[in-house]
Model the fold of this input.
Amino acid sequence: MDIGYIFLILACITVVTDFVLIAVNYGKFRPLHLTFFLSIALLLCAYFRILVAFLTDDFSLKEVFLYSSSGLPLMFKIANTWIGESSSLLFMCLVFALSYLFLRLSDSSSPSVKRAQFSSMLFLIADVFLLFLIVIVIVENPFESIQPESIQPPVEGMGLNPLLQNVWVLIHPPVLFIGYSLTMFSFSIALARMITSAATASPGGTASLSSECFDDADANYAGVNYADANYAGAIDDVKDERDERNERNLSDLSSLRNKERREERPYEEFTVLLAWLFLSLGISLGGLWSYEVLGWGGYWAWDPVETASLLPWLALTAYFHLSAKRDDIAREFMLFIAFFMVIFASALTRGGLLESVHAFARSPLGYVILIFGAVMGILFFVLRIILRKPIYMFDVDVRSLQSLSRFIVFWSLLLALIVCVAGELMPIAGSMLTGVEMKTQQEFFTKWCYPPTIAFVIALAGCNLRMSVKRFLLLTAFVSALGAALAFLKMPLPNTLANFGIPFLCFAALAIISNFTRIIGKARALGTILIHLAIVIILLGVFVSSSAEQDSGDIKVALGDEVNVFNAKIRIGDECQLFKSTGTVYRAHILPEYTMLRIGISINTSHHTYKDTLWMRYYPNYELLTRPLIISEPARDIYVSMKYTDTLYDTLRNAMMFGEASPPSHIVINVKVVPLVSFIWVGVIMMSAGMIIVILSRTSSKSDSRKSDSKS
Done:
């Protein structure tokens, strides 16, 4: 048994022990338990064990053999700890555990009794989540040996998929895992608050608290000696004293209630904001990775796994557009939806429920993860019944543009979420019924997500305007007429839906920009408006880049040829370089990792002349791979890629197998022009900056609030 596996088992035991200690001391605040520190240390030891195995090329471990090779660059060996099927689960578990550690450390101050009960329940729930993750890692076992120890271990691994050998693999998965972990924590906080509320709810509880505030004053009044000759003056003095004390007690009671109300949601706002930020960055980095590596000129293909990663983001965005002062549990419900969407995305990836370039092989683990999410869902709805609170109340004020706009934003996001979930579930259900693998086409998502997207953009404009509902409806009708005219005229884009939507995006952008003048000096509002504007810019980039993309088709060119494509002169180099063998990997026996063909290319546009190379590689374990050349200009990207041909395949394969091959005299290239795709990446930066401003401003306001509480 590997030492790393022993670390995992011991970590599981210590987490169970921590759960028991918290349960025994429920509601009695204690500093950090030693067992919890020990569980974190054990998980760190397990992670460093698999990390060292990758760094030292320990191919006796199945995980290292499948995902690494001796010639793999150091940074990708480190990244393998969050790339591999089993090791990435361990990394996810560690990220959650470290987030939990931060929570325990930040909760070390002396709390009220109610806060101590809440913290105890929160830690119990977090222990359950952590225990579940550790058990899954134990079952998957990243420390599994590839063969019995009595047999000589392999001297080489199979190598990392070349699609993953990109700089974004160092950032995208960890950022997304952090977003998933924080989403789980956000739900655990909401769940803990619901459980403590259900456990402590008692009719007239506030009234009993209020009566205690006046006990002293009433006792003083009752203790007056009415036989005193000056009893009238004494009574007046006592009445005045009682009135003053009542006012003081009422003020103290109000302050206490406000403080408790803030303590009822410790960390929730902070964790939800951070979760949204990391999910936004993770999804965007995944799109950039796809755009730069896969070679098809796009950044979003509605792949099942990438669509699933969008679902918790939609749920959290909808959460932000619900008022905190509600008599329902809508905000808690959206956190549950976000949590369950994380569970759903993990089940798709780990269980291979749908065919995806991002998914691992089909496994029962996906169903186990879904069952855990379902159990949490049952608990949530049981608590809802105990609390006797509705899930959602239609509290919209149709006379207020702000209230109406937030209402529409919420429901448009929820509708988009429902469409995406339906698109994910239909092929799963169809495959179960027919036994044939199915996939939802991109057209389904683009068609049915379009209406809620337009409604979202219209409501976004309403959120940033100060006018009557009637006037706003008139403006919306005018923009709709303009969009219909552009759609009818088929301008400025070839896509009808994009032409109809662009006026709404411009309308929203102008509304948001006009709101800047009203929020000067207000950091929190500035961050929110920056996020709104960034989303509009991203959508504008999506509408234009997806509908106005130009494709040259396949162009056969000889070495030294020059072609004119989309106002650009492209010249292929006079000769190509053939690299016969690079690195080593295992495939039945030791082979070179890849052979490569590289050709120089020059692209002359009206702005500049660019010189770079095109290349094609043959990997014995992964076949042919090319990476596109992307020339980014202010208004467009020129996207050039070398296409697969039998001649290239034979050249590269013969170079590997026989050590010699004749370079091809012709190659086939494809050129695409993708307009305004840079708007998407600029919008992501703006959106992230806006959320960072919001987080910093709210952290500052909370710090000021704590200072005022301590003074009072």
Notes: The beta strands are 550-558, 562-565, 568-587, 589-604, 609-619, 623-626, 629-632, 636-642, 666-675.
